[in-house]
Design brief:
With 118 residues, the chain is α+β, with helices and mostly antiparallel strands. It has helices spanning 53-61, 68-78, 86-99; strands spanning 4-8, 21-24, 28-33, 37-42, 48-51, 103-108. It has a 3-stranded antiparallel β-sheet with strand order 1-6-2, covered by helices on one side. A hairpin with a 3-residue loop joins β3 (28-33) and β4 (37-42).
Length: 118
């Protein structure tokens, strides 16, 4: 049987699963800032972060339905001329958002393969 959990303010120590489905913490409020930026404030922890236009695109894709792999594919399609580091930058942002409790991931308790982990 597969059991799913959403955990905010926590990352697995063994890497981010490409099948994981990040979702926004409902305690996060957002405010538009000048020049296409977005300020996020986590009301649970008082943490805040300012996202640039690229980070904002990632934030808008974090809906609990899309997997990390799907988010990476959408980002690559939307930014075809982006440097190769785009995937690593997106994963770093997702890890930072998770570490500060802005997002959580649905983790399934079924075994994973190495290819599913970044």
């Amino acid at each position: 049987m597969r059991t799913a959990h959403v955990v905010f303010n926590s990352l697995r120590k063994d890497g981010m699963e490409l099948k994981a489905k990040p979702r926004a913490n409902p305690a996060v409020v957002q405010r538009e800032a000048p020049e296409g930026e977005m300020v996020l404030i986590n009301l649970d922890s008082a943490a805040s972060i300012v996202l640039n236009s690229t980070g904002l695109l990632v934030w808008r894709l974090v809906d609990g339905r899309r997997t990390v792999k799907h988010i990476l594919a959408v980002m690559r399609r939307q930014m075809p001329d982006a440097p190769r580091e785009l995937a690593g930058d997106v994963v770093c942002l997702l890890e930072e958002l998770a570490a500060d409790g802005f997002i959580g991931f649905e983790w399934c308790e079924n075994p994973r393969t190495k290819e599913e982990t970044l």
